[in-house]
Structure formats: structure tokens, C-alpha cells
Design a protein that fits this description.
By secondary structure, the chain is an alpha+beta fold. About 20% of the residues lie in helices and about 30% in strands.
């Protein structure tokens, strides 16, 4: 009986240790280094866009996502794993929505490359003119049947 109790105690300790290791592995950044990414979001006339939400969606094989929100002056800092840590170097598709969640049109190319040194990315946007991604797909006409 004493042998069985000791075995169960040791097994329980091993199970707890294994669960902790699995939990920590799931939370790791897999050694990914981030680069500071900052910038400003403004309208075409230069007015800062307050409260805009930026989403950087990685396009590579090890794609990461980074996010930021603009301050009163339109400035933002991107975060991936922790507040203000930046983005993992790579290519990203950027989307911006206003404080109410309405998608905005980015003037120019909405894809960016984050390098290994500090990166500044400024965006000019047009308020409330971009259709939501889901609506764009459903508004398309069906293909004609022969």
C-alpha cells in the first residue's frame, strides 16, 4: 500500500511538471525577436486620426500579428507579444479602422516590410470608405453560367 501511495505522489508531481512545461511552451514567442515599429496615421489633409486601430497581419510562412492604436496626435506603437515591443521582422498586410471599427482606405500600398532595425511607418487614410472584408466578398456578382 505504501509503495502505491509513493508512486501516485511521484506521478502527480511529474504530471504537474509536464503540464507546466507544456503551458510555458505554448506561451513562448519561439525565440522571435521584435523590432520597434512606430508611426502616424493622418488624413490626406494631414489631420491626425485619433483612436484608429492598426492591424499588421504577417504574410510569411511564420506569420505573426501585431496591433496598435493611435493617440490624440495620430501616433502609434505596434505590439506583438507585449505592450510596445514592436513587430517580428517580415512582410505584413496592414488594415486600419477608425475608433468605431469602420475600415479606412490606406492611400498607397497597404503592405509593408518590417526590418531588423527600428521602423517608422506613416499612413495617409480616407475615413470610412473601405468596405469590410466580408462585405467585399459577398457583394461580388456570381460568375455567369454558359
Amino acid at each position: 500500500m505504501e509503495c502505491t501511495v509513493r508512486f501516485l505522489q511521484k506521478s502527480g508531481v511529474l504530471c504537474v511538471a509536464a503540464l507546466l512545461l507544456v503551458g510555458l511552451a505554448g506561451c513562448s514567442s519561439q525565440g522571435a525577436k521584435t523590432t520597434k515599429v512606430t508611426g502616424k496615421v493622418a488624413t490626406a489633409d494631414g489631420s491626425p486620426v485619433k483612436g484608429a486601430n492598426l492591424s499588421f497581419q504577417g504574410t510569411g510562412s511564420k506569420a505573426y500579428q501585431a496591433n496598435g492604436t493611435t493617440k490624440d496626435d495620430g501616433s502609434y506603437t505596434v505590439s506583438t507579444f507585449s505592450e510596445g515591443d514592436g513587430a517580428v521582422p517580415g512582410d505584413y498586410a496592414v488594415t486600419i479602422s477608425d475608433a468605431e471599427g469602420v475600415p479606412m482606405t490606406i492611400d498607397g500600398k497597404p503592405t509593408v516590410t518590417v526590418g531588423t532595425s527600428s521602423t517608422t511607418l506613416d499612413f495617409k487614410v480616407t475615413k470610412g470608405t473601405a468596405p469590410p472584408p466580408a462585405a467585399a466578398a459577398t457583394d461580388a456578382e456570381p460568375p455567369a453560367t454558359p
